[in-house]
Amino acid sequence: MKKVLLTGSNGLLGQALEQLFQKRYQVLSTGIEDAAEVKTSENSYQILDITDLTKCKDVINEFKPDVIVNAASFTNVDECENKKEQCWQINVKAVENLANLARRHDIHLIHYSTDYVFDGANGPYQEADRPQPLGYYGKSKLASENVLRQIGCPFSIIRTCVLYGTGIAVKKNFFLWVLENLQKEKPISVVTDQFNNPTLAEDLATGSLLIIEKAAVGLYHLAGEEYLNRFEFASMIAKIFDLPADRIKAIKSSQLKQSAPRPLLGGLKIDQAKEKLGYHPRTVSESLSYLKRKITNHE
Ligand SMILES: NC(=O)c1ccc[n+]([C@@H]2O[C@H](COP(=O)([O-])OP(=O)(O)OC[C@H]3O[C@@H](n4cnc5c(N)ncnc54)[C@H](OP(=O)(O)O)[C@@H]3O)[C@@H](O)[C@H]2O)c1
């Protein structure tokens, strides 16, 4: 049985990965919190801050993973503009350390990046398109990709976009923000000029499993397939969850005053992943219906 070291296991993607991987692999889940949010009989959990090189070395020497899946990241796009040093340490320096350890022990390192490495002038983008990030988050993620290429360990870079879903104590993603506000009958303002393809966390986990199983090294775009703007996505959430869509007000990005500039025509083309990996994500409507069942079952 393959041994998988998972970092950031309490995040949205981390929880989806952990739940899927437990069925197939010996998983060591790690995160910066004191305990695992997902508690099952199978999982073992250790505290691991990926910026702590000594601890990373110790955990790898002791667990001897075949694969490291790095789902840990500084993901708050606006905060990255104000906390550049912290962002760089987590999103770049720690990845460099993991990549050096992966090369030394010949471990397959799987790392996540974003469509924010592109400027959004003419997305959706394919793997061969030239990145040109607008904000510091995108710059740090592109730098992390370059670190992996330079160090030359066995690596897979998975770019994804607008990750959404539910989990235990996860940060508010766009889906949860829309849902919670509409359920409280609060009006929300949502942009019509930011386009990308929303990605269900469980689908990204399935794509990551395909990458491991096929030992697919290199760069892959794994995302949902439908290209939507945020207003359209919010309207679909309202429809599937039977909530009032008339509380969603359409606005432009220029009215939002976000600290980090956003790619407008962002998003990713997933043809390569479909062809080479057999990756077939759910439609947005199927994903939202799945989440509705998941939330209802938990309540
Ligand atoms: N979310 C999106 O829309 C999106 C889009 C494109 C790409 N991605 C990429 O997809 C990946 C997963 O994202 P996600 O949405 O699952 O993010 P998330 O929910 O924010 O999860 C990231 C996890 O990493 C943890 N973490 C932060 N610093 C750490 C450190 N030094 N050591 C160990 N763990 C640390 C976080 O803990 P705390 O919560 O305690 O900080 C959190 O549990 C990331 O690489 C992200 O860049 C996400």
- Report the mean per-residue pLDDT as an integer: 96
Helix content: 40-55%
In the predicted model, the low-confidence regions spanning at least 5 consecutive residues are none
The H-level CATH homologous superfamily of the domain at 3-167 and 199-225 and 266-282, spelled out, is NAD(P)-binding Rossmann-like Domain
Briefly characterize the structure.
This protein has 299 residues and is α/β, with parallel strands linked by helices. Helix content is 40%, strand content 17%. The strands form 4 sheets. It has a 7-stranded parallel beta sheet with strand order 3-2-1-4-5-6-11, with helices on both faces. A two-stranded parallel sheet has the order 7-10. A two-stranded parallel ribbon has the order 8-13.
Structure in words:
This protein has 299 residues and is α/β, with parallel strands linked by helices. It has a domain of 209 residues: NAD(P)-binding Rossmann-like Domain (Rossmann fold), CATH 3.40.50.720. Helices cover 40% and strands 17% of the residues. The chain has ten helices and 13 strands. The strands form four sheets. Strands 3-2-1-4-5-6-11 form a seven-stranded parallel β-sheet, sandwiched between helices. The protein has a two-stranded parallel sheet with strand order 7-10. Helix 2 packs parallel to helix 4, helix 4 packs parallel to helix 5 and helix 8 crosses helix 10. The longest helix has 22 residues. The site of NADP nicotinamide-adenine-dinucleotide phosphate has 27 residues, from helix 1 and strand 5.
